[in-house]
């Protein structure tokens, strides 16, 4: 009976995802990046149904009552998260909220299926991240007059956090970028990514002169040099992409852009020459089959998993994703593809793309250049992270060691992802309220006249 239900669920999961994507397209508007209450309710029903289906499978396969309690806690968190966001931030984008929560329930299902302890820890990080970042739009609304004035504070805070890792951090998978406290580990560079975006936006807010570009580039170079020294090349690459995109948006100067690419090519060559773990990843990317017993083992088994899943998957809990090293973080995409299928994985990519496009539209509709820059930086950071992990796990590009936002296991990654979305929501709320106030002033003047 359980096997029959698991097999049927493969098609039900896909059907619900198609409906979710359809409601995304249907509810997409150019004006305010919003969806109406009816469409939002439809998406949330899909989230609850998918979540329930997945945990029924996990429970019946494990017969572990702790799975039931974990499921109920997750439902409570999702309900409260939606309720309070709708109550306190009426101008927030329901589409963003629904999309990130859909990714979260996929994460809950696959991680709990892989390991109950891992799934429980991920949920704890979700609650902590959701509660803390819930305050971000409120802070941006009430401290808007100061957030763009403290550019050097951003630079100093980011520098201190990165340098602290050099003294107190521990090396994991070849990179010294983790601070470990008890059972939990934290990656400060994830938080510094957002601090760095605020720094660049504040530097270019009113001054795009060559002198200011050189000054901002020097700070960026210091950040990237520290990350390269710590062998955290994945995050270093994200910093570079963020800066190049924000620099081009601020100056519209292609010379800066192509000059940066040339410099990155030189640095990449140096990194390949001096870092053995980078050489291993490149060799695994070029020919994982020739190194299947060593550095190619991870990517080869990831590809095996994707192939085994076919178009519709083998069913949740019926695959063998645990044979893939670091499956809960670096290689979560092959695990999902094996059990949910390639069609489902493509739908997951479309949902992630919708988050990226919503972020860009929020940026485009911004009246403030400062917030527009931040929105572009966050959107590009999110998109490149998605591209790098999916591209790395499918052999499109070498593995970078990054995580899939809202899906992979990792507390610091999840917290920074929530923080990015919270900043986008804050930007949208600020912009909408400014439009409402300006419209109100215009209407008042018309009435007076």
TrEMBL record:
<keyword id="KW-0812">Transmembrane</keyword>
<feature type="transmembrane region" description="Helical">
    <location>
        <begin position="410"/>
        <end position="430"/>
    </location>
</feature>
<feature type="transmembrane region" description="Helical">
    <location>
        <begin position="152"/>
        <end position="169"/>
    </location>
</feature>
<feature type="transmembrane region" description="Helical">
    <location>
        <begin position="299"/>
        <end position="320"/>
    </location>
</feature>
<feature type="transmembrane region" description="Helical">
    <location>
        <begin position="68"/>
        <end position="85"/>
    </location>
</feature>
<feature type="transmembrane region" description="Helical">
    <location>
        <begin position="340"/>
        <end position="358"/>
    </location>
</feature>
<feature type="transmembrane region" description="Helical">
    <location>
        <begin position="97"/>
        <end position="116"/>
    </location>
</feature>
<dbReference type="InterPro" id="IPR001182">
    <property type="entry name" value="FtsW/RodA"/>
</dbReference>
<dbReference type="GO" id="GO:0051301">
    <property type="term" value="P:cell division"/>
</dbReference>
<feature type="transmembrane region" description="Helical">
    <location>
        <begin position="122"/>
        <end position="140"/>
    </location>
</feature>
<dbReference type="GO" id="GO:0015648">
    <property type="term" value="F:lipid-linked peptidoglycan transporter activity"/>
</dbReference>
<dbReference type="Pfam" id="PF01098">
    <property type="entry name" value="FTSW_RODA_SPOVE"/>
</dbReference>
<dbReference type="GO" id="GO:0008360">
    <property type="term" value="P:regulation of cell shape"/>
</dbReference>
<feature type="transmembrane region" description="Helical">
    <location>
        <begin position="184"/>
        <end position="204"/>
    </location>
</feature>
<dbReference type="GO" id="GO:0005886">
    <property type="term" value="C:plasma membrane"/>
</dbReference>
<feature type="transmembrane region" description="Helical">
    <location>
        <begin position="256"/>
        <end position="278"/>
    </location>
</feature>
<protein>
    <submittedName>
        <fullName>Cell division protein FtsW (Lipid II flippase)</fullName>
    </submittedName>
</protein>
<feature type="transmembrane region" description="Helical">
    <location>
        <begin position="45"/>
        <end position="62"/>
    </location>
</feature>
<keyword id="KW-0133">Cell shape</keyword>
<feature type="transmembrane region" description="Helical">
    <location>
        <begin position="6"/>
        <end position="25"/>
    </location>
</feature>
<keyword id="KW-0132">Cell division</keyword>
<keyword id="KW-1133">Transmembrane helix</keyword>
<keyword id="KW-0131">Cell cycle</keyword>
<feature type="transmembrane region" description="Helical">
    <location>
        <begin position="233"/>
        <end position="250"/>
    </location>
</feature>
<dbReference type="GO" id="GO:0032153">
    <property type="term" value="C:cell division site"/>
</dbReference>
<keyword id="KW-0472">Membrane</keyword>
<feature type="transmembrane region" description="Helical">
    <location>
        <begin position="370"/>
        <end position="390"/>
    </location>
</feature>
């Amino acid at each position: 009976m359980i096997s029959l239900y698991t097999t049927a669920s493969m098609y039900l999961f896909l059907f619900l995802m198609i409906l979710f994507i359809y409601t995304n397209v249907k509810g997409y508007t150019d004006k305010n990046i919003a969806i109406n209450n009816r469409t939002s309710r439809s998406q949330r029903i899909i989230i609850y149904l998918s979540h329930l289906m997945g945990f029924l499978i996990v429970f019946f396969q494990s017969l572990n009552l702790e799975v039931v309690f974990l499921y109920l806690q997750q439902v409570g968190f999702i309900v409260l998260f939606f309720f309070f966001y709708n109550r306190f931030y009426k101008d927030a984008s329901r589409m963003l909220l629904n999309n990130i929560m859909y990714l979260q329930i996929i994460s809950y299902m696959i991680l709990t299926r892989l390991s109950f302890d891992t799934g429980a820890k991920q949920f704890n990080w979700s609650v902590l991240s959701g509660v803390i970042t819930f305050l971000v739009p409120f802070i941006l609304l009430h401290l808007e007059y100061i957030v763009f004035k403290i550019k050097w504070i951003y630079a100093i805070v980011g520098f201190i956090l990165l340098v602290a890792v050099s003294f107190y951090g521990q090396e994991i998978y070849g990179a010294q970028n983790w601070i470990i406290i008890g059972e939990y580990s934290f990656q400060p560079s994830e938080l510094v990514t957002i601090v760095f975006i605020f720094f660049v936006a504040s530097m270019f807010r009113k001054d795009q002169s060559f002198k200011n570009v050189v000054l901002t580039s020097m700070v960026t170079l210091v950040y990237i040099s520290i990350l390269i020294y710590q062998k955290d090349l994945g995050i270093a690459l994200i910093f570079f992409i963020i800066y190049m995109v924000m620099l081009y948006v601020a100056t519209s100067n292609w010379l800066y852009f192509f000059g940066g690419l040339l410099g990155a090519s030189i640095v990449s060559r140096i990194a390949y020459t001096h870092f053995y773990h980078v050489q291993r990843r490149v060799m695994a990317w070029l020919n994982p089959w020739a190194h299947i017993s060593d550095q190619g083992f991870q990517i080869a088994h990831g590809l095996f998993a994707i192939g085994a899943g076919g178009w519709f998957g083998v069913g949740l809990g019926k695959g063998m994703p645990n044979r893939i090293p670091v499956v809960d973080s670096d290689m979560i995409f092959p695990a999902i593809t094996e059990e949910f299928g390639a069609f489902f994985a493509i739908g997951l990519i479309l949902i992630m793309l919708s988050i990226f496009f919503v972020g860009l539209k929020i940026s485009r509709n911004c009246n403030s250049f400062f917030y527009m820059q931040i929105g572009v930086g966050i959107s590009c950071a999110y998109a490149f992270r998605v591209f790098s992990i999916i591209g790395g796990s499918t052999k499109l590009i070498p593995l970078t060691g990054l995580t899939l936002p809202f899906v992979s296991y990792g507390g610091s990654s999840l917290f920074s992802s929530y923080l990015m979305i919270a900043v986008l929501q804050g930007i949208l709320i600020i912009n909408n309220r400014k439009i409402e106030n300006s419209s109100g002033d215009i209407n008042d003047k018309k009435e007076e006249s």
